[in-house]
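U., I forgot to send this yesterday:
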Amino acid sequence: MLTESFITSILAQPKTANTAIAKDIGIYFHELHPIPVVKSSLKKSSTRVNGLAATSTHIFAAQADKAVVHVYSREKGSQEALISFPERIHSLTLLGDGVLVLGTAEGRAILWEICTGRQVSTPTAHLQPISCLAGNQSHLITGSEDSNIHIWSVPRLLSMTATESPEPLRTLSNHRAAITNLVMGHSASGTDICVSASKDNTIVVWDYHSGDLLRTFLLPSTPLCLALDPCDRAVYIGFEDGSVQLVEFSSRDSKVNQLYDKSLQSTPVQVTLPSWTTQGEPSPVLCLGLSYDGTTLLSGHTSGKIVHWDTPRRIFTAELADLNAPVTNLLMSSPFTAQRMTKPLTVVKPKLGEGSYIFTSKLQGSIGTLSRAINADGFPSDLLEKAIASFSIAATNTSSSSGDEELRKENEELWKIVNDQRALQKKTWSKYTTLKTGGVES
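Result:
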């Protein structure tokens, strides 16, 4: 049976005496399907909003109001390392499984390659702390309490040969108050969106590749967190008043994506649909998570409750858990296990300055001929011959294809000359025949 799970973290110690929950637990592992249940937990952690990140092997938790990140091994179920940084950490995100990005109180982003220990950082581009981060292996987006959003090129930041201090590709500055959350679209093309939420009671949809503002939505309350639909058709918003709202980017009867209708981009849209509310006393929504198929929405609240929403019917369904402390982070795990040839054995602590670049990882699964190469003394001769032959074939194919292309062009030019000559010959012969027979040429 397909299972789906999620990870939550809390801030500080429990608010009330509750014997069902241990006082020193800070991170929880939950199973969502088939039955909602807490499977395990990790101790000694207190994280603020946007302060948790997870890979398939490790959990990274930025400790509230500290310059410390706790690293936990998921296989061992315990803390593996405590990493200190020169600045207090306000936010975390992962670029793939290999680079952890930390947003600091001084307005800079630190990139840490967790398998090598290499550490690089951006200049102090923001005037206030980086409150949220989003990224992939090509772009990093940083949002700050100074209301600005910067777009960075990840290859430039991680370049080994860079001689100048990196600068943002562009700055998005339409908001008028602190940025509370950022989410990126799922597209792999050159056109993709990101959505930003701000304390100015707006969310903005951007094309972060070009920096174009696609749509501005005016909201009835302050948005604190976002979750993007798996197909990028809509965004779910968690509000300070404890409610949840769905904002669709295009109308259901539209056959085109209205985000790219330039006539609509300059006009803010007032959200007037009723929001979704829970039963009982409301409390601010600090984090959201959406199931893989988009049919289930989870929200974590200041009260400690984790709430289940039915997105097709747009209603409150159930309260899944009460963690007795503010639920600040909620990370959904894909039900499909990614097939990877390597995995990190341990996390390498970040190192400042230049040094030896060593990648520490474990090969897993069947590695075929590589296994024979590793166990042999030197390289087996048949593997070397095969490698040399593949290079020769590639070079031959390249030169052959290049030569074929040149011949094709020459043939086309020659046939054009031949056809022109034939047409001229036909016209000349027609004139000669007409004059010889004493006729009149038409």
